[in-house]
Amino acid sequence: MRRTDYFLPTLKEDPSEAQIVSHRLMLRAGMVRQSAAGIYSWLPLGLRVLRKIEEIVREEQNLAGAIEVLMPTLQPAEIWRESGRYEDYGKEMLRITDRHQRDLLYGPTNEELITQIFRDSVRSYKELPRNLYHIQWKFRDEIRPRFGVMRGREFLMKDAYSFDIDETSARTAYQKMFIAYMRTFDRLGLRAIPVAADTGPIGGDLSHEFIILAETGESEVFCHADLLSRAAPDADYDGDLATVIEPFTSLYARSDEMHDAALFEAEVPTDKQVRARGIEVGHIFYFGQKYSGPMGCRVAGADGKEVDVHGGSYGIGVSRLVGGIIEACHDEAGIVWPWAVAPFQIGVINLKPGDEQTDALSGKLYAHLTQKGLDVLYDDRNERAGGKFSDMDLIGLPWQAVIGPRGAAAGEIEIKNRKTGEKRSLDFEAACALLASPPPSDPPSASPAAQDKA
RNA sequence: CGGGGCAUGGCGCAGUCUGGUAGCGCACCUGGUUUGGGACCAGGGGGUCGCAAGUUCGAAUCUUGCUGCCCCGACCA
Fold first, then answer.
1. Measured between alpha carbons, how far is A283 from A399 in angstroms, rounded to an integer?
2. How confident is the model at residue A113 (pLDDT cuts 50, 70, 90)?
3. How many Å apart are CA A389 and CA A322, to the nearest integer?
4. Cα A396 from chain centroid?
5. How far is it, in rounded angstroms, from Cα A217 to Cα A209?
6. What is the CA angle A120-A122-A123, rounded to 5?
7. A324 CA to B35 C1', in Å?
8. Which nucleotide's C1' is closest to A316 (Cα)?
9. Residue lying closest to nucleotide B36, CA to C1'
10. d(CA A391, CA A333)
């Protein structure tokens, strides 16, 4: 993409309404614009990141055997009355009345809808287990939206719903999602900590929140330090999943609401005790027959008797992750994107548009990298060098390729690693080879800055 | 919803107390000089001062009502 053809309205100054770093940077980098409190328009650069995250989430869901559907944003109130949540949900649910005075709502989640679909279509245990997911916009009318897209009212979320014949089978469905989540966050360049979460009236050990460490995180996390260095499991969903998950669930990890100080002291050696702030980016949950019962979602078992199916739901905050990643990956100058989600992997800066040699070399590099399938942003604007450098640092593309008159005359391209700041001058071939893969420093592990606060 | 704050050109702000020609920086447009980390000179465009009533000869400024946004708290992917 040539910068002169693109829509990328960057801001030199911080907008006054943005307090936390990810919100500031998203506004300054021209990723989003606020439409109303907690409601955002996604500009081209932000949309690219959102789509990349979405695609990684989708790939991992598919690998784990989940099947994609798409449910609407608006739902009839009727099914929520069936489950009993229409009255329970409170003011967070945005209620709408259509021209026929029918009660609708902008979906805050989709348990009812998917249960309705499933119960109307599936009669036999032979069609279980099944896991259906979608990636869709949701709305929760938060009392106080804040932190930009991290806590908006409208947000993009992946939510999956599993259907099983019994709890044993549901446990397997849960474990698959657990593994898929660890893999997803790993691919996004994040280190997520699975913390035990409150299972509510159902009880049991089948609820985890996935938290990434960040100084501005909303929740406090207490965990064993080894969880920060565990690599994500392989995508092998046929083996003994409990064994795969065990290394993640056996170590102490809880958020403030579930924290047990005495247990923490007893289970975790002092030098391994991590206390940090974090952002919840995913939540998986087994809820048993909570919706299938009241909503009559039953299938015939092998013995011919009907049973209420066992359900679980599994959410990932896709739009929240955009902010979350920035919280974990930035520096003084701006964003530092992990390769996998960078809106463009490479920024080419032509320092002197109009100069025959720099135009030729910049154009050649841009064409060559683009042809290789890389996402390249080519800054061909006739701006001052400083402005282009600052802009490129701000939007945080992993690699920068700088071409000026002196280098062009010598056939050299200056490559800068955004994360480390390291610069090297290379000839065309060497530059192309280097730019084709992630910088060696990528992907980052959990934010060291956040850990220091422990 | 309780407490606090803000609303003046695209962005950041001054002006409001003490009513009297709407201003500054950045951005934008034109011309020129510049050109490796946010240049300089000259000229220029753009604002019903959030909305509505009121007080007044006269309101960005005073009064009342409303709306929107931000921050702190209780709640959430």
1. 33
2. very high
3. 23
4. 17
5. 14
6. 105
7. 38
8. B77
9. A385
10. 9
Side-chain-facing half-sphere of A84: CA atoms under 13 Å? 7
Residue A145 (CA) to nucleotide B50 (C1'), in angstroms, measures: 21
Q: Which amino acid belongs to residue A392?
A: M
Across-strand partners of A186?
A: none
Q: Do the Cβ atoms of A179 and A237 come closer than 8 Å?
A: yes
Which amino acid is present at A25? L
The amino acid present at A389, given as its one-letter code, is: F
Beta partners for A438?
A: none
Interatomic distance A255 CA / B23 C1' (Å)? 52
The Cα–Cα gap between A244 and A295 comes to 34
Quickly give A389 CA vs B39 C1' distance in Å: 15
- Percent of chain A at pLDDT > 90 equals 81
A305 CA from B66 C1′ (Å): 62
Tokens encoding A305 = 């008797």
State percent of chain A over pLDDT 70: 96
Q: Of A52, A55, A8, nearest to A32 (Cα)?
A: A8
**Nucleotides on chain B within 7 angstroms of protein Cβ:** 1-2, 11-13, 25-27, 34-39, 68-77
Give residue A442's pLDDT.
Answer: 60
Residue-wise pLDDT tens digits, A240-279: 999 999 999 999 999 888 889 999 999 999 999 999 989 9
Q: What is the ipTM of this complex?
A: 0.92
Yes or no: say if A98 and A104 are a contact pair by the CB < 8 Å rule.
Answer: yes
Nucleotide nearest to A352 (CA to C1'): B35
